[in-house]
Amino acid sequence: MLDMNSLKVGTVISYEGAPYVVTFSQHVQMGRGSAVLRTKLRNLLSSQVLEHTFKHGDKIDEADLIRTRANFLYRDKDEFYFMDTKTFEQFALSIEQLGHLASFCRENSDVDVMYYEGKPVSLELPKKIAFKIVQTEPAVRGNTAQGNVMKPATLETGYVVQVPIFLKEGDTVIVNTEIGNYVERA
């Protein structure tokens, strides 16, 4: 059993008999009442997103998931294909099941796959991953006159992230996979 203070982004809970992942959480202090936790939950089976407010005394069940290691093989349109590293069994996850994590799947990279009732339902990625910049505009002297010190850069997975203007094509950057922003140069 979890309480509302242990619900963070990425926590997987059992809510109304289905597994949900917390995609947003915010503690809110009410005027004279106790604090509540506003959350957005994404159903791992149907990808449906709902908003729910947990009160201070609410007890939340942790989802009964099995985590196993898998290798990301390739992407075919909206399907992502993986291979279990122990059983060598191949399976696919849709772009809807992966959500924003689809932007950070690189071929031949190892990921943790979450199984619910014997079926793969989602991934768990490291919080920070290094990616190579494949396309970005070159920095021009005087670009900082308006205070704009960031520019868009396309990563090897096709994801576009804002990076500092001193970075160029071929550089490696570390990206936060939870919120999808630039952290530092690798």
Automatic annotation (TrEMBL):
<dbReference type="InterPro" id="IPR015365">
    <property type="entry name" value="Elong-fact-P_C"/>
</dbReference>
<comment type="function">
    <text>Involved in peptide bond synthesis. Stimulates efficient translation and peptide-bond synthesis on native or reconstituted 70S ribosomes in vitro. Probably functions indirectly by altering the affinity of the ribosome for aminoacyl-tRNA, thus increasing their reactivity as acceptors for peptidyl transferase.</text>
</comment>
<dbReference type="InterPro" id="IPR012340">
    <property type="entry name" value="NA-bd_OB-fold"/>
</dbReference>
<dbReference type="GO" id="GO:0003746">
    <property type="term" value="F:translation elongation factor activity"/>
</dbReference>
<dbReference type="GO" id="GO:0005829">
    <property type="term" value="C:cytosol"/>
</dbReference>
<dbReference type="InterPro" id="IPR011768">
    <property type="entry name" value="Transl_elongation_fac_P"/>
</dbReference>
<feature type="domain" description="Translation elongation factor P/YeiP central">
    <location>
        <begin position="67"/>
        <end position="121"/>
    </location>
</feature>
<dbReference type="InterPro" id="IPR001059">
    <property type="entry name" value="Transl_elong_P/YeiP_cen"/>
</dbReference>
<dbReference type="Pfam" id="PF09285">
    <property type="entry name" value="Elong-fact-P_C"/>
</dbReference>
<dbReference type="Pfam" id="PF08207">
    <property type="entry name" value="EFP_N"/>
</dbReference>
<dbReference type="InterPro" id="IPR014722">
    <property type="entry name" value="Rib_uL2_dom2"/>
</dbReference>
<dbReference type="InterPro" id="IPR013852">
    <property type="entry name" value="Transl_elong_P/YeiP_CS"/>
</dbReference>
<dbReference type="Pfam" id="PF01132">
    <property type="entry name" value="EFP"/>
</dbReference>
<protein>
    <recommendedName>
        <fullName>Elongation factor P</fullName>
    </recommendedName>
</protein>
<keyword id="KW-0963">Cytoplasm</keyword>
<dbReference type="GO" id="GO:0043043">
    <property type="term" value="P:peptide biosynthetic process"/>
</dbReference>
<feature type="domain" description="Elongation factor P C-terminal">
    <location>
        <begin position="129"/>
        <end position="185"/>
    </location>
</feature>
<comment type="similarity">
    <text>Belongs to the elongation factor P family.</text>
</comment>
<dbReference type="InterPro" id="IPR013185">
    <property type="entry name" value="Transl_elong_KOW-like"/>
</dbReference>
<dbReference type="InterPro" id="IPR020599">
    <property type="entry name" value="Transl_elong_fac_P/YeiP"/>
</dbReference>
<comment type="pathway">
    <text>Protein biosynthesis; polypeptide chain elongation.</text>
</comment>
<keyword id="KW-0648">Protein biosynthesis</keyword>
<keyword id="KW-0251">Elongation factor</keyword>
<dbReference type="InterPro" id="IPR008991">
    <property type="entry name" value="Translation_prot_SH3-like_sf"/>
</dbReference>
